[in-house]
Amino acid sequence: MKALVTEFHALDITQLNRGWLHPNTTFDWVWRTNKGAQIATVKITVLESAVELWFPIESTRAIQPVSLIYSAGPQGGKRPWFACPQCERRVGILYHVPSRPFFCRRCCDLAYPSQYQARNRSYGRRFRGITQRERERLSVSRPPDCQ
Ligand SMILES: [Zn+2]
């Protein structure tokens, strides 16, 4: 069974683009349950054409740089996109589960709930821990504000 997008935390560029994408700023992005309880946090640093995602991984914190791509918007201006850190495709949403890097839906091997019945019944990969290859792509360090 494939995991569903609803099991993951989605980071949506259109939400970030509502006033958050100012270079040289850092803020916490928080996912909450419907009742408002905090379920996950990622610290985001905005750079000129990239964001850095800081999240806990095992007993330390990983920094995952994600490039931003800009396309021309319909009424002028520019529309930002993420470049998936794995496949480099232009995507609007990156997905993540705790202790895992952010990737696009395809790289996470996720299905939309509505896709589920229509798809074949192959037994896809479920998420396990972070792989060695993924670990090598991340710069893992301990920021000064994280004891
Ligand atoms: Zn991808």
Q: Would you mind describing this structure in some detail?
A:
The protein is mainly beta and 147 residues long. The chain has helices spanning 13-16, 105-108, 132-137, and strands at residues 3-4, 9-12, 25-32, 38-46, 50-57, 60-72, 78-83, 90-91, 93-96, 110-111, 139-141. It has one domain. The chain contains 3 helices and 11 strands, in the order E-E-H-E-E-E-E-E-E-E-H-E-H-E. It is globular. The site of zinc ion (ZN) has 8 residues, from helix 2.
Layout of secondary structure:
Layout: E1 3-4, E2 9-12, H1 13-16, E3 25-32, E4 38-46, E5 50-57, E6 60-72, E7 78-83, E8 90-91, E9 93-96, H2 105-108, E10 110-111, H3 132-137, E11 139-141
Parallel strand pairs: 1-10
Antiparallel strand pairs: 2-9, 3-4, 4-5, 5-6, 6-7, 6-11, 7-8
The structure holds zinc ion (ZN).
Residues 84, 86-87, 89, 103-104, 106-107 line the site of zinc ion.
Keywords:
147 residues, mainly beta, two-stranded parallel sheet, 10% helix, 41% strand, globular, binds zinc ion
Please bin the fraction of helical residues: under 10%
The end-to-end distance, rounded to whole angstroms, is 39 Å
Taking Cα atoms only, what radius of gyration do you get, to the nearest Å? 16 Å
- SSE ordering: EEHEEEEEEEHEHE
Q: What is the oligomeric state here?
A: single chain
Bound molecules: zinc ion
Summarize model confidence as the mean pLDDT: 81
Structural class: mainly beta
Tell me the fraction of residues in β-strands, as a range. Answer: 35-45%
Q: Could you list the spans in which at least 5 consecutive residues all have pLDDT below 50?
A: 117-126
How many structural domains? 1
Outline type: globular
Largest sheet: 7 strands, antiparallel
| Number of distinct beta strands | 11
